[in-house]
Structures are given as structure tokens and as C-alpha cells.
Specification:
By secondary structure, the chain is mainly α. It has two helices and no strands.
């Protein structure tokens, strides 16, 4: 395996406002987002 394996996000957030949406795609933050969605009843997309 030559070279280093870099972990690059598929879609980086273009604006700071899109940061929560980008984090929601993450497994870790996605679970928290889903729990918030279930508890609040609000759609977090």
C-alpha cells in the first residue's frame, strides 16, 4: 500500500450554515440528529 490514505468528506460544507447538515451525514452526529428528530418531532435536514 503505497502512499497515505486520506479521509476526505464527499461533500464539504460550502457555507458555515450547511455545517449541521454535513454533520448529520456522519454516523456519530446522524444518530444524535435522529434522536433529536424523534424527541422534538422536527425534521432536521
Amino acid at each position: 500500500m503505497a502512499g497515505k490514505t486520506l479521509v476526505i468528506p464527499q461533500k464539504p460544507p460550502p457555507f458555515p450554515d450547511k455545517l449541521p447538515n454535513f454533520l448529520a451525514n456522519s454516523p456519530e452526529f446522524g444518530n444524535k440528529r435522529r434522536q433529536l428528530f424523534l424527541s422534538t418531532g422536527k425534521e432536521t435536514k
